[in-house]
Structures are given as C-alpha cells and as structure tokens.
Amino acid sequence: MQLTNKAKAVNRSPLTLMERLYFPAILKGMGITFSHIFKKKVTINYPEVTRPFSPVFRGLHVLNRDAEGRENCTACGLCAVACPAEAITMDAAERLPGEEHLYREEKYAAKYEINMLRCIFCGLCEEACPKDAIYLSETFAPSNYSRKSFIYGKDNLVIPHPQNDPEGFARAKGLIQERKEKTKQQTA
Amino acid sequence: MSEQKQLFKVTIDNITVEVEPGTTILNAARKIGGEVAPPAMCYYSKLKDSGGKCRTCLVEVAQGSAADPRPMPKLVASCRTTVMDGMVVKNITSDRVIDARKGVVEFLLINHPLDCPVCDQAGECHLQDLSYEHGAGASRYEFKRRTFEKHNLGPYIQLHMTRCILCYRCVYTADQVSGERRHGILSRGDHAEIATYIEKSLDNDFIGNVIDVCPVGALTDKTFRFKNRVWFTKPVDAHCSCDKCSGNVQLWMRGDEVLRVTARKDEWGEVKEWICNTCRFERKKVSDWVIEGPSKIDRHSVISQGHYVGVQKPHETVAKVTGRKPKLLMNIKNVSEVNQVDLSELKGPATSDVFKQIKKEN
C-alpha cells in the first residue's frame, strides 16, 4: 500500500569501480571539511562577547523602585495570580509611620519570593502588574549547585537604590527603559 | 375569589414571570435569575428601606401595564418600582439601559480611588464587578478626587471614606440591628460622609455586619487587613454554637489558619444570616469551628482560582523503582521566607516589626 509519493526505491545495484576505490569519496568529504576553515565562524567567545538579545527576551525579574527609591510593589498579588507556574509568593505588610521613604504605598510586600525553578519566564507577571513594579530583565538565571539558591527573595530582586547606588540604579533603570521602548516600537 | 391572591404577570427581557402584587421589578427579575436581574449597589433585600440611591438598577419599562400600555418616559429604578399586571420591562435587551448604566458607573467611579491593588475588598468587590461588566474603559474626569481625614473606628472595623459610594447600606444595618435610630450621612454633595453614627453603634454586637453589606472597600475587617488577598484564601463553610447568632459562617483559610470570618452570602452577594462580632473577630482558630466543607464558588470568580476539585495526588515512582527515596529533594517550606508569620494570631495588619522578629528567631 502506498500512502505518499515520497517513498524512494533503494538502489541495490553493485558498486562501480569508482565507488569501490573509496578514495575519491574521502577526498570529496575532506574538501568540504577544509572549506569551512575559510568560512565565517558561527560561534562567539562567550562570555567576553555576548550576542544581542531579542527585543522580547524575558530573563530574571527585577522589582522596580521609583525615582525617590521607594519600592513600587504593593503586594496586590496580581503577579502571583497570573503566574501559570505558581512560582510567586508574597507576604504583605502595612507601612508604619516613618517608613514612607521606603515604600510608595500604604501596603507593601514585606516578603516577595520567586521560585526560579518553577518560573517559566512567560512574562505574565510583568503584564499583570498595575504598579509598574516587576520587570523581566535581559539576564539569565546564573547556574548554581544548590536548589535553595534558586528561591529568589527581595534581596535578589529589588533594583539598587537610586541614592545609595546611583550607578547600579541607572544601569538597571536603563535596561527597563530600553525594554519599554522596544516593546513600544513593536506595538507601534 | 377575592380572597385568592391575584398574581401579576410581568415580562422582563421577554421572559414572563408571575409575582405577587407589591413586588419590585428587581425582585421579579431576581426570581427569573441570571443576567436578567439588574445589578444593585445599594438595594439589599434584608434591609428595610434600602435602595434607590445608586441608580445602577435602572431598567426601561416598555409597557406600563395591561390596562395602560403606554411606556414610562424615563428609565426607572427597578429596586423601587413595583410591578403592574402586564408590565413589559427591558433590561439587557435595551440599549438605553446599557448606555445609562455605563454613565452611572462612570459617576460612581468619579470619586472612587482606583487603589484596588491595596484594597482588601478587591476580588469580591461589587463595584469592581459592576465596572468590569458595565463600565467604560477609562474615566473622563480630570479633577482631584475628594479626600477625607482618616477616621479610626477602633480595632475591628477599618473605614476608608474615600472609597465610599454612599449606598447607605451600613446606615440601615446599624439602624436595624441596633434597633435605635442613629445619624445617617453628614453633609451633602461632595462632602457627604458616613462617620459619627457608626462610632455611636460600635458597641453593638452585630455591628461587624456593616463590613459584609458594604459593596466596596469602605468598611473592611481590620483583623484581616492586608493579611492576604481574597483569592489566595480558601473559603469553607463552618458553624459553631454561638449564644448570640446562628453561628453559620464562612471561614477564609490559608492552610490551617483562619484569616477571616464572614457571613455566608447568597447568589446576589447578600448576607444570608447576620453573625455576631464574637464569631467574626474573636474566633480565629480552627478548633473554634466545625468545618462543613468548602464553599461553592462560581468558577468564573477569581476566588475559585487555585481551588482544584477532585484532585488526585500523583504516585511517587522514584522510591518504588530505586528502592530508596530520592536524595535531591527540596521542601520549599524549609527554604522559603514567605508564610512564616502566624497571621491569624495577629490582631491587626502585619508590619515591619513582625517580620523583624521572625528574622531574629531564625
């Protein structure tokens, strides 16, 4: 029974003299191999050289601060409810008087954890966030020996403070800005 | 013949129903049920005299009655208009109603702060549902929203006057459960606010019910404040023997912790039985309650997320095949810093002090 026309009959005729010599075929193969020496390399010297990320690349998360260094996250739980992998958990707390310079809203995330082992980097948390607080950056999760180290708390996630570490803040903020513009260009 | 009750025939959205004379259009529509029932922000069937304030239940009366088939010129509030025999009402089939409701939602949202990410009512807020279903995507209002000075109502009830939509439900609740006339709403227009009367009835045993009747997050439970989002807690029906109330409540649990106690609600979001303050605020232990089972939650509600029904735990095959337990297992509970605080034991919201203590203990 023939299902498709793609079937090929195997040629079982005896080898010719040229084929029996083998050497021409070996030389032909060598030629192909050596020709690659003069071709452009497809690999790069990572990590000295890195490839540009795609504009839609989604890497490790960052928790954003505003210009005054107050944390944007208000622990509304929308990222956690949007997360298909159930990787995000948090504990909310009320801002005490005198903590206004730390947190932007009345309520904040006292604990915020992302389980990077569960995370599938889909970016739905970023999409769900109403407070401009969570972003996926253009960095990979670094490899590690223990599973414990993939439970990212606030100390791993919150971006540097604009006053205490202006350089780090500018770097992180620049990435966010770049990302925003890229997505804007894409949607336009 | 005259003693036999005569029933009125009403047609709402092409569905005919027979109701007793004196029934409002809203209640007749609720008898049919489903989408035909107009939304209501201020009307509460358990509260006498409620309704007529919010205008979300506007409907079009296409035919006044069998005797006088002229249509009513304006849209009418269905919670306040009683039915006539042969009345024809249009609710979702009328473009005028849908348009008017959109306007009403916009008006309700003029002064309502959009702080749903902070608000504890989010997820079970009637105004959220209403604006999602009937509202426009954006507001055209450009001016400052009204603000009020913060008002402390004691350790149990949290008042956010900015979120109030002046539905008067809590006024009627405080009046009718305490059996004594208290003040209503002070000032008028933009300055109208609920404040003094609630303080006056704070000592009442059933005053906690104002939290349940509030359609928005203006009155919330302080013992639940910021503890968890509604949709991450699991609602279960429970009861206890209480000498003040029926003791039939709904517990909102996280694991073995009772984070919040509320009254059970019917399909219209109304309280079935009032519960007392002791049940609501003091009984926060599982041992205080006899748990009947998980509450039925509409699967379209965000509260039903993560509540799986008929779960079958997968068999662990590693141990069976290799003869020993896997070495590289990680229990997230040993690693995670979240969920370390016993929230049900806190009287109020968690603060940074609570989390600092946790750090020291570890």
Describe the 3D structure.
The complex is a heterodimer of chains A (188) and B (362). Chain A has 188 residues and is of the alpha+beta class. Chain A has a domain at 61-187: Alpha-Beta Plaits, CATH 3.30.70.3270. Chain A has helices at 17-21, 23-35, 78-82, 124-128, 154-157, 166-187; strands spanning 61-63, 88-94, 107-115, 134-136, 151-152. In chain A, the strands form two sheets. A three-stranded antiparallel sheet of chain A has the order 2-3-5. In chain A, strands 1-4 form a two-stranded antiparallel ribbon. The longest helix of chain A is centred in the last third of the chain and has 22 residues, at 166-187. Chain A is elongated and about 95 Å long. The mean pLDDT of chain A is 88. With 362 residues, chain B is α+β, with helices and mostly antiparallel strands. Chain B has four domains: 8-107, Ubiquitin-like (UB roll) (Roll); 116-221, Alpha-Beta Plaits (2-Layer Sandwich), CATH 3.30.70; 230-306, no CATH class; 318-361, no CATH class. Chain B has helices at residues 25-32, 95-110, 126-134, 169-178, 196-200, 209-213, 277-282, 318-322, 332-335, 352-361, and strands at 8-12, 15-19, 58-63, 76-77, 87-90, 152-153, 157-159, 219-221, 234-239, 248-254, 257-263, 290-294. In chain B, the strands form three sheets. Chain B has a five-stranded mixed sheet with strand order 2-1-5-3-4, sandwiched between helices. Chain B has a four-stranded antiparallel sheet with strand order 11-10-9-12. Chain B has a three-stranded antiparallel sheet with strand order 6-7-8. In chain B, a hairpin with a 2-residue loop joins strand 1 (8-12) and strand 2. In chain B, helix 2 (95-110) crosses helix 3 (126-134). Chain B is globular. The termini of chain B are far apart. The model of chain B has no long low-confidence stretch (mean pLDDT 88). Classes of the chains: A alpha+beta (188), B alpha+beta (362). The A-B interface holds A 74-78, 80-81, 86, 89-96, 99, 105-107, 110-113, 115, 130-131, 147-148, 151, 153 and B 115-118, 122, 225-229, 231-232, 302, 305-306, 328, 330, 332, 335-341, 348-355.
